[in-house]
Write a structure and sequence with these properties.
This protein is of the alpha/beta class. It contains 21 helices and 13 strands.
């Protein structure tokens, strides 16, 4: 990258009006996370050619990564005005609008998206599809289109298992999220509890920013922890081949900062899609996806390009349960009313669809002495959510916004709520297990797709399937019934509290043993 920057800079010096070199310089700076430099050079490129779509689109992408969603949307719309068929643009527009809680023409846009995918058009990145509609057939089509676009020039053959000079199975975990991130909160005990006499585990980190205290805590749990963020795919592949990995596990899929391209080089004879991305990768380079039979019923396995392997309990790992010290935690500390029933959803606002919001507002109407606590989004989204609340006849003062907190403090605040209202089609995932850990009942709507069945799997694990709805109408009925029946709410909370200590959901040792059986099983199959 440094050589590229040097040469693009020389090209610009020779011809300051070379808008392509300016954009390519920005592209390179973006790759090494020098975002402000990249933004300046994209702007210079666009000033020389205000119809240069690559620069406008990539400028929007940077703004999106920096969570400057309003500026991102402005630039995506410029691209749309020039060429509405620009690759993967429609999905980016939708995703950006969702982060802004801007739901204008939402249904028409989603219909456009789904009909375009049926025609095999390149309109959407897979992660966007998961939160836009509940259709695993189309999720697979979307992933296949995207994966083929990213790997069409490559056809790396499979590689054979190494000659075993060790009895240990070598496992590589790959992620940008070995930091204060929901994925690490879930899986950190897995690294700690692996049987090191049988498994040699490696961490491959491509976190773009500075690692944090949680990164330092987990490093000791790996045989080796390797920073690969600045490495090419070829270099990463060579390291993995030299170490003789048996299995490479992608913990992020198509989420932020993913390195899908490294897996097209075959890092190990077996490559697994697990945990961070709740859907299929749509790619021949991934051999397995790990799930449970609630997450992916056997009849839905056809909608996954990977072979589905099933854990006997919930697919989601969690750290062991420990009781929360909340004696001194009161609602007034968080500016929450002491005399109201608190509904909450402390997930990302991009998961909130107009249909879900309609349902939440219907519930608030039927439970007048209640409020809704949401995780505080950006200022534009706050304004839009308050406007949408008023449009639906609810006083916007009944919406409270919660600041982001460290995980332990987040759990303590969560325990002050009464009922968690889930999103659909993309459920709360880590936040669902957080709510159960805090003893809060979750009302969820279960669909067909992976992302829409995670909370149902978690609730099954704690014997709470009575909180799972099969329709939006049933979702509302369950929430209203629980909110207006204090005795029933108390009984359910007590039942959750009693089931937690013995639940397999928070039994990390049993979970790791089950996971290791899967690893050994698929190695033996090869």
């Amino acid at each position: 990258f440094n050589e590229a920057i040097k040469n693009f800079s020389k090209a610009i010096e020779l011809n300051p009006k070379n808008f392509i070199s300016l954009a390519n310089l920005a592209n390179t700076q973006k790759e090494i996370f020098k975002f402000e430099n990249a933004i300046n050079n994209y702007k210079k490129s666009i000033s020389l050619n205000n119809n240069y779509l690559l620069a406008i689109n990539n400028l929007a992408n940077i703004y999106h990564e920096l969570r400057r969603y309003n500026e991102a949307l402005e630039n995506y719309r410029k691209v749309f005005e020039i060429n509405k068929n620009y690759k993967f643009l429609l999905g980016r527009l939708i995703h950006c609008q969702m982060y802004l809680s801007d739901w204008k023409d939402f249904d028409d846009t989603i219909n456009n998206l789904t009909s375009s995918l049926k025609r095999q058009a390149k309109v959407c990145a897979p992660f966007v599809a998961l939160s836009s509609f509940d259709n695993p057939e189309l999720h697979k089509i979307c992933a296949e289109i995207y994966a083929n676009e990213k790997s069409s020039a490559l056809d790396t053959p499979t590689i054979e298992h190494r000659n075993r000079d060790s009895k240990k199975c070598k496992i590589g975990y790959f992620s940008p999220d070995f930091r204060n991130h929901p994925v690490l909160h879930l899986i950190r005990d897995v690294f700690k509890r692996h049987d090191k006499s049988k498994f040699e585990i490696y961490g491959f980190s491509f976190e773009p920013n500075k690692n944090d205290e949680l990164t330092e805590e987990i490093k000791k749990d790996f045989f080796e922890f390797i920073e690969v963020k600045d490495m090419s795919a070829e270099k990463i592949r060579n390291i993995c081949r030299k170490k003789g990995l048996d299995i490479a596990i992608d913990l992020c899929g198509f989420t932020n900062f993913n390195r899908f391209e490294i897996f097209t080089h075959r890092l190990a004879p077996i490559q697994i899609n697990y945990l961070g991305y709740p859907g299929t990768m749509g790619s021949k380079y991934f051999d397995y996806i790990i799930a449970d039979k609630t997450i992916i019923p056997e009849e839905e396995a056809v909608n996954y390009s990977e072979k589905v392997v099933y854990l006997p309990n919930c697919y989601q790992p969690n750290s062991n349960y420990k009781s929360l010290d909340i004696n001194s935690v009161k609602r007034d500390i968080y500016n929450l009313p002491s005399d109201k029933l608190i509904f909450c959803n402390l997930g990302s606002n991009h998961k909130i669809t107009p249909e879900v919001f309609d349902s939440w507002m219907n519930i608030l109407k039927k439970v007048p002495n209640s409020i809704l606590l949401l995780l505080k989004p950006n200022e534009y989204a706050i304004d839009n959510i308050e406007d949408e609340t008023s449009i639906r006849g609810i006083n916007k003062e009944r919406i409270f916004f919660a600041e982001s907190l460290p995980h332990d403090d987040h759990l303590k605040r969560l325990k002050l709520a009464d009922i968690f209202l889930d999103t659909f089609p993309y459920n709360a995932h880590t936040t669902s297990s957080d709510a159960i850990r805090a003893g809060i009942p979750i009302i969820t709507l279960k669909g067909r797709s992976f992302a829409s069945r995670v909370t149902a799997s978690i609730l099954k694990q704690v014997d709470m399937t009575q909180l799972v709805a099969e329709s939006i109408e049933e979702f509302e009925i369950k929430a209203i019934e629980l909110a207006t029946n204090k005795e029933k709410l108390r009984e359910i909370k007590e039942k959750i509290k009693k089931s937690i200590p013995d639940s397999k959901l928070f039994d990390s040792l049993t979970f790791v043993k089950d996971l290791e059986k899967i690893y050994q099983q698929i190695i033996n199959e090869k």
